[in-house]
Design a protein that fits this description.
Elements: E1 6-26, E2 29-48, E3 66-71, E4 74-80, E5 90-100, H1 109-114, E6 131-141, E7 144-153, E8 163-164, E9 168-179, E10 182-193, E11 197-198, E12 201-202, E13 208-220, E14 225-239, E15 250-257
Antiparallel strand pairs: 1-2, 2-3, 2-4, 4-5, 5-6, 6-7, 7-9, 8-11, 9-10, 10-13, 11-12, 13-14, 14-15
């Protein structure tokens, strides 16, 4: 059967929640543990290159409309965050640690796809311990705090299932302005992700570069409680290997509670 060139058009709604706990070690140091939970709601349709609906003869072995949920990979980080360098208005924060392979993984979807078998591309973990590094700097000018940060999740080995996760690098920079108990931050932010591999073959859906703006507000309700909300708007994106990638408007909410 002749199969015409066609597109897989996939819309993925992501709902992400983090539970994070940090224990102070003194001298502006702390140890943190983060456990995430994700819901992945995927909607799939197929179309020919001229935009007409298409029903492929191979059915939904590659992608299907479905909703998946579960715990994703956690992480443990050691933070060293001096308030400011001695005698200077500059400050630096450093963090290092590792991810924890808690998330569910799948069997090699590239191999199963080549064999014409049903497979799953969405997974919640990498099956590997991946190093995490974070560096941020800030400078105070009057009441305004200018900050810049870069955060990386590295990939150093292949899992027992043959998966080599991509490298993820996120960055952000911009000012934060205090308005009483409310702080408003406006940032440029971006992300780079390399291509993941299954037994050396490219994992579809990985490999992209994107960037946009973040507007975030943090309200300190008390000395021990802070509420935050953020809004991300994409400005540009580029996918690898002919794939296109676009991130929709993203909303984030947070609650920070310090215990005695």
């Amino acid at each position: 059967m002749a199969i015409p060139p066609h597109r897989h058009v996939i819309a993925l709604d992501l709902y992400h929640a983090d539970l994070q706990a940090a224990y102070g070690l003194g001298a502006n140091s702390q140890l943190s543990l983060r456990i995430p939970y994700d819901v992945k709601d995927q909607h799939v349709r197929y179309e020919t290159l001229d935009g007409r609906p298409y029903v492929p003869p191979y059915g939904d072995i590659h992608h299907r409309t479905e909703t998946l949920w579960g715990v994703s990979d956690g992480e443990v980080l050691f933070w060293k965050a001096p308030a400011f360098l001695s005698g200077s208005s500059w400050g630096v924060s450093l963090a290092a640690g590792t991810t924890l392979p808690l998330g569910k993984t799948v069997n090699d979807p590239v191999r199963l796809g080549l064999e014409g078998k049903e497979h799953e591309h969405l997974q919640f973990g990498s099956g590997t311990f991946d190093p995490r590094l974070s560096v941020s700097g800030f400078r105070r000018a009057g009441t305004v705090l200018f900050g810049a940060a870069i955060d990386a999740r590295l990939s150093v080995y292949e899992s027992s299932g043959g998966y080599r996760p991509p490298v993820n690098v996120q960055w952000g920079l911009g000012p934060a302005v205090p308005l009483g108990p409310l702080s408003i931050a406006l940032q440029l932010a971006g992300q780079y992700q390399s291509v993941g591999k299954w037994h050396g073959r490219e994992d579809e859906g990985t490999g992209f570069t994107s960037g946009g703006t973040v507007l975030r507000g943090t309200y300190r309700a008390s000395a021990k409680t802070a509420l935050s909300a953020g809004l991300y708007r994409e400005i540009f994106s580029h996918g690898s290997s002919g794939q296109t990638f676009h991130q929709g408007l993203t909303v984030s909410l947070g609650l920070t509670q310090t215990l005695p």
